[in-house]
């Protein structure tokens, strides 16, 4: 959904979607040992990193550089 908003140049909505995504991804412990495989944990960490990077890029486009750096 966030990428659709980005394509439509609705960056505020895109940022909101990405922030919501991060909240849901971070609800559980990222490196929880309840995951059966190391590959599953690594995939989840990579997804969180990609969402963080995308959110950083969108916030920079919105001239919210201080928030992007955080």
What do these coordinates show?
With 70 residues, the chain is mostly helical. It has one domain. Helices cover 73% and strands 0% of the residues. The chain contains 4 helices and no strands. Helix 2 runs antiparallel to helix 3. The model has no long low-confidence stretch (mean pLDDT 88).
What keyword list fits this structure?
single chain; 70 residues; mainly alpha; 4 helices; 73% helix; elongated
How many beta-strand segments? 0
Low-confidence runs (pLDDT<50, min 5 residues)? none
Biggest sheet, open or closed, and with what strands and sense? none
* H/I helix tally: 4
The total number of structural domains is 1
Query: Residue-averaged pLDDT, rounded?
Result: 88
Which word captures the global form?
Answer: elongated
Strand content: under 5%
Helix % is: over 70%
Gyration radius, in Å: 14 Å
* Overall SS class: mainly alpha
Cα separation of the termini? 23 Å
Could you spell the SSE succession in H and E letters? HHHH
Helices and strands in order, then pairings?
Layout: H1 2-7, H2 11-26, H3 38-61, H4 65-69
Quick description:
The chain is mainly α and 70 residues long. Helix content is 73%, strand content 0%.
């Amino acid at each position: 959904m966030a990428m659709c908003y980005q394509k439509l140049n609705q960056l505020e909505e895109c940022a909101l979607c990405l922030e919501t995504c991060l909240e849901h991804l971070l609800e559980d412990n990222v490196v929880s040992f309840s995951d059966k495989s190391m590959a599953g944990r690594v995939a989840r960490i990579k997804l969180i990193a990609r969402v963080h990077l995308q959110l950083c890029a969108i916030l920079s486009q919105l001239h919210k550089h201080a928030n992007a750096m955080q």
